[in-house]
Amino acid sequence: MHFTKGLRGLCMGLQDLRLFYAGQNITFKKVAQAGKTNYSISSRSVSQARSETELTTFEMNKHSQKAKISKAMKAYLQRSVEHDKFMETKITEYEIGKRHLANMMGEDPQTFTQDDINEALKYLMPSGLFEPKARPSMNHPLEDYQKMKEAEFDELGRPYHTLFYTGLPKFFSILQQISFKAQELDSLLYSTGNKPAESKLLSELVMQFRFAATSYLDELAILKDTVVVCNIHGSKLFTKEKLEEKLLEKISDKLYEHLCLSFERLIDHPYSATVGDFIMQYREPVTISLYAEDIPELMYNEKGVPYMTATGLRKKSKAEVTVYGQGSGKFTVNGKDILYFDSIQDREQIMFPLQYTGLLRSVDVEATAEGGGHSGQAGAIRYAISSALKSFVSPSMAEKMRIAGLLTRDARKRERKKPGQRRARAKYTWKKR
Amino acid sequence: MNSAKFILSRSTYFRSCLCSKNLSSVVTLDCLTESNTKVPRTSLNVPREHTKNHIGMWYNIEPNMIKRLFTYEGIAPHLKELTEIFRETSIMIREPAVSVIDYIQRSDLSVPPNKFILYGKHGTGKSLSLLHIIHHLAEENWAIVHCGYPVKWCTLFKEILPSATREGYYDHTTDASIWLQHFQLQNNIILQNPELVTMEDYHWTQREITPKGSPLTSIIDFGIGRSRYASECVFQLLKELKQHAQEGRLKLAVVIDGINSLYVGASHYRDTNRNFVPLNKLTLIEAFKPLLRSDWKGGVIVGSVDIIMSTKDRRESHLPRYLLTREGWETLDPFVPILVDKYSEKEFESAVNYYLDRRWLQHPAGASKEGKEELEFLGGGYPGELLKLVNGR
Predict the structure, then answer these.
(1) Are residues A306 and A273 in the same domain?
(2) Where along the chain is composition biased (Basic residues) (chain A) (predicted)?
């Protein structure tokens, strides 16, 4: 597919020429000779060109034979030219804007970076809009505008990809590969001397005990050495959006689901490790954000009792919590006991981190909560207790807490009321006159 | 996560009457720790014999006694319903009641009455401690002047009319005659004492007179029959009782649940000027107040103060000085304050086990150590809160 890249490079290089010859009958022809690609351009009005010197650099009419070019290619080239032209104007505008902005801010335009632009815009056009995308911004056009897809066919209009007419060639080629790999693995399974029935059983069992494969396979001693399931721990399949970005193809939810299932089945195969590289190609590591340095050391008071303080936020409430070790399960909030909260739901919110870590009876909690309503305060206390408790528990438990969502700030907030509506979402009663 | 450690479905919103589903537990059911579920019961059904060793145990009050003492008032409706469901009226023996019973037994009746005021946060078991005490008083043949819920005379009254006998006062009609029936039923044995006769003539109307020397029951019967004069009857009856106690013909126990409601706020009844009638203008309320003073002997006063017996603007503290107001405090002074606190660990265990035993708490996690810990945390160890959690309400 180097051709298309070369072609585009040429197109970019021919910018001025294309500008000059816009609207004239230009034909391109690919002449492939031993890996080297040349292009010939023939035009009836070439001789009338004003800048003949430029044209000579591209070996005009070197091969004088009349080249054929498909309509699809023509259209593509047309699109490409327009796109590049458009991008160039945008980039020029961006550069000018950047210079103006630098001057306004009294900075040197040469060293004015994107960060400086963002800061300048924030200063010059302050916005109270909630959604960051709705605030004024100025990015490089290459970031803001979608990339143009390269030509998928040659100048005769013949597609390069066998699956071109599926509409989603790259996507379906992945599916196809999965299928081929599965067949390959199956043949491997049968060739090791296992009977198909046994293999089927094995496959099912592996599927069932994927996460506990090693321990379970002890029982299947005969097969133990041969079975190698692909280790996918700590990774996940690309999200639909990421896959779309990578393939530059629009994938429907249904197709993505199909892909997920296909990959799952491949991974479940007893010999999936053989095609591990292929599988991992479409997976990305799951980031684990809780690092040891995020867990502060316990503090000790003058009596030697360990304690830890933490602050929690939720909605408009703020809570400050001190958790004492060597306790008996006492809980106070603003000088009152758990009855500070009338609703059982709020009390459960507070109880959950303590119960989850199994420290309900062994720590004392002193909390102060302010602002917001009762559920906000309960949520803030829950978050603060969880943050404080991570110093009391083992790192693996802290990681479990993180996965359970205890160490994540609940960022939901009250949604604003909209004009013309009764509340944030509720509409006024519609009345037909 | 390899094991499904998520909270069990909590269905507070699908409360059923007979089974508790309110218990949520972080741990799955198969990894619960077993705990002791034996209900500590005692066969000693006479409160006199209850000692500190019995604290946390449950004892039954006989149905006859319940019928005699609490037909009209004394047990809150939701608890009464519960006793029917449980097929027994069982009370946990707790420290405040045992102390008060002990104090009553050791009281010297030749001096002004001892006063015991139970106080504590709402839902700690003051009313049920009073139940225990009343049972004791009835067993010991005390004459009981019992008022189970005076707030209802201020706010939930049936009918109030300007008094026929007192200028500027207002009388309850039906409420007062119901109370007379309550008194009569509670004290039917004591009232058979021939010594209990009226000490003066009562001219209710021109034709209806209770002459001096007629039995006290004649006042009661007249009040029950003529509800227009029932409040006045209560007033005079209590005056007579006080006098009889003073002269040693009976042991008079005054038991009022929520004494502070006699002193705080106003009734919801409006007079002709559309003003709320103050409590000191209600004959029925005023009838009880002389009994709370220290100007007599031969009796005992037991009461409780609770924030919900006060008006909504006076619920900041549960302490008697605040709840009784100056008037109440000065009338009752001196008294013995008895703190009714939340369950101790042993009592809590006993209570949960009782609900389990009665199949009122049915969640499988309820019998486990974890389940009990959860119930204790969520309810803060308060008896009332526990009852709410196990869907007693």
Answers:
(1) no
(2) 414-433
The conformation of residue B315, written as its DSSP 8-state character, comes to: -
Of the three residues A252, A285, A318, the one that is the final residue of a domain is A285
What is the least distance, in Å, from the CA of B58 to any CA of chain A?
26
Contacts B385 to A, Cβ<8 Å: 339
The percent of residues above 70 in pLDDT, for chain A, comes to 75
Whether residue A426 is contained in a domain is answered as: no
Report yes or no on A132 lying in a domain: yes
Per-residue pLDDT at B16: 32
Domain residue ranges in chain B: 1-92+344-393, 112-124+143-339
Say if residue A48 is in the same domain as residue A128: no
| Cα separations in angstroms, B32 against B75, B280, B373 | 36, 58, 12
What pLDDT, in 10s, does the model give residues A18-71?
333 333 433 333 333 333 333 333 333 333 333 333 333 344 444 444 567 888
Q: Name the residue in chain B with its Cα closest to that of A340.
A: B380
What domain range is A103 assigned to?
A: 79-144
Q: Give the residue on A whose Cα is nearest the Cα of B389.
A: A344
Residues with Cβ within 8 Å of residue B35, at least 6 apart in sequence = B349, B367, B368, B369, B372
**A267/A324 same-domain check:** no
Residue A100 has pLDDT above 80, yes or no: yes
What's chain A's average pLDDT?
80
Q: Which residues of B45-70 are buried (b: 16+ CB within 10 A; e: fewer)?
A: eebeebeeebbbbbbebeeebbeebb
Residues A332 and A363 in one domain: yes
pTM above 0.90, yes or no: no
A331 min Cα distance to partner chain B (Å): 8
B183-195: string of b/e by CB count within 10 Å (b at 16+)?
Answer: bbebbeebbebee
pLDDT(B79) > 70: yes
Write the class of the CATH domain B112-124+143-339: alpha beta
- Count of the separate structural domains present in chain A: 4
pLDDT of residue A154: 80
The reply to whether residue B378 touches residue A345, judged by beta carbons under 8 angstroms, is: no
